[in-house]
Design a protein that fits this description.
This protein has 235 residues and is mainly α. The chain starts with 11 loop residues before the first helix and ends with a helix. It is built from 13 helices and no strands. Helices cover 46% and strands 0% of the residues. The chain has 2 domains: 36 residues, no CATH class; 131 residues, no CATH class. Helix 5 packs across helix 7. The protein is globular. The longest helix is centred in the middle third of the chain and has 15 residues. The structure holds heme C (5 copies). One heme C binds next to helix 8 and helix 9.
Length: 235
């Protein structure tokens, strides 16, 4: 039931009133239609192309590749990009990786990359995280520059054989953090170090003095407080 009647629904009459004034009535009406939208589907895990898809646990976990090796624009733009086939082919072209010659399974699981590359085609990855279109402003770059880690919004991606949605991406979820950022900020140079971030934030949540102090310092250093006005995220 909690997914159908989230806590922020207590605010619903107020939000509806303001929404009406702003001409968002249609959107509010649409709420009932989207009463169980996929944006709230924690656990949403679409099947990806290729016999075994793409495995973050292997690449970001075992091989230790930094997120920005593939999601190259995440610190510079609103949208985090998905890497193109050439990025994969840099390692998965024939004979580059020893496993290509020693493991039939590996070869079969990576054939779709070489086929797409040879055909100059792209791999049709299926989108996992998506906010609705009436949320016009979700800036990745601003969050990373403020020290919000991928971990806070996407979970331990480096342990996921298949990516799934770990957070609800609902309005109350955005606002909960905007009201209490001290539970979530880490030094900017650690934002992709998910293992470290998880441990640091757990210490802070448990009240460990140095971790709590670190959170306060990071909030004080923010140039702007996270916005709570409707126009920051909606038209
Ligand atoms: C070797 C390249 C590579 C690396 C390194 C990598 N990713 Fe990815 N990532 C991908 C590809 C390809 C996809 C699309 C396929 C999928 O969703 O599994 C993806 C998908 C994602 C998605 C889901 C996108 C959606 O559709 O909503 C998230 C979130 C993500 N990556 C975060 C991370 C994080 C965080 C790290 C670092 C810990 C990371 N990635 C490291 C290649 C990479
Ligand atoms: C920096 C080199 C590198 C890049 C870039 C890279 N991979 Fe890999 N990939 C590897 C290595 C090494 C392995 C074998 C790791 C192992 O099994 O221990 C592997 C394994 C795989 C496998 C087999 C996984 C399994 O379950 O056995 C798939 C599928 C794969 N990669 C897809 C991709 C895709 C898609 C991309 C581009 C988004 C990509 N890789 C980018 C190095 C890379
Ligand atoms: C403050 C929360 C937050 C943080 C921090 C964050 N993301 Fe996201 N991410 C989102 C949301 C929300 C979406 C869906 C955005 C949309 O629909 O426009 C998303 C979407 C994505 C996508 C899908 C993009 C696409 O076009 O398919 C990828 C990939 C991704 N994030 C990677 C990352 C990586 C890598 C990091 C860390 C370096 C990161 N994100 C940090 C919230 C976050
Ligand atoms: C885990 C914490 C966290 C979550 C979750 C989060 N934010 Fe933020 N957000 C921040 C912080 C911290 C800032 C302040 C950035 C700064 O000082 O520039 C911010 C700033 C912003 C800004 C202003 C950016 C700018 O240029 O000043 C927008 C817009 C925004 N967030 C939208 C969203 C939306 C939409 C969601 C939900 C889909 C969301 N945020 C979820 C922490 C978060
Ligand atoms: C930090 C970003 C952020 C701010 C600020 C914000 N919203 Fe939202 N809002 C969202 C997101 C994300 C969604 C979509 C997810 C959802 O439906 O919960 C949303 C959804 C909505 C919806 C659609 C309801 C639904 O569930 O379909 C309405 C109406 C709305 N917002 C009105 C407002 C009003 C009015 C304000 C100002 C009091 C406001 N929002 C401020 C991020 C924000």
């Amino acid at each position: 039931m909690s997914a159908i009647f989230p806590k922020w629904m207590n605010l619903f009459p107020t939000v509806s009133a303001i929404g009406g004034l702003l001409g968002l009535t249609g959107v509010v009406g649409g709420f009932w239609y989207y009463a169980t939208p996929k944006f709230w589907n924690v656990g949403y895990m679409p099947v990806q192309p290729g016999p075994a898809g793409f495995n973050h646990q292997i690449h970001a976990g075992k091989l230790g590749m930094d997120c920005r090796y593939c999601h190259t624009k995440v610190e510079k733009s609103y949208e985090a990009n998905i890497p193109n086939v050439a990025t994969c082919n840099g390692c998965h072209a024939e004979d580059r990786i020893t496993l290509y010659t020693t493991s039939e399974v590996h070869k079969e699981r990576t054939n779709f990359i070489r086929e797409a590359y040879a055909a100059d085609a792209s791999i049709p990855w299926r989108r996992v995280h998506k906010v609705p279109d009436y949320v016009h402003n979700f800036p990745h770059q601003a969050h990373l520059a403020a020290g919000v880690s991928c971990f806070s919004c996407h979970g331990r991606i480096d342990t996921m054989p298949v990516v799934y949605q770990s957070q609800p991406l609902s309005m109350s979820w955005c606002l909960d953090c905007h009201r209490n950022p001290e539970q979530n900020l880490v030094p900017k140079d650690q934002v992709t170090n998910l293992n470290w971030v998880e441990a640091q934030l757990a210490e802070r949540a448990n009240g460990a003095a140095s971790a709590v102090a670190a959170g306060k310092t990071l909030v004080d250093a923010l140039k702007n407080s996270p916005p709570q006005n409707c126009g920051a995220c909606h038209y």
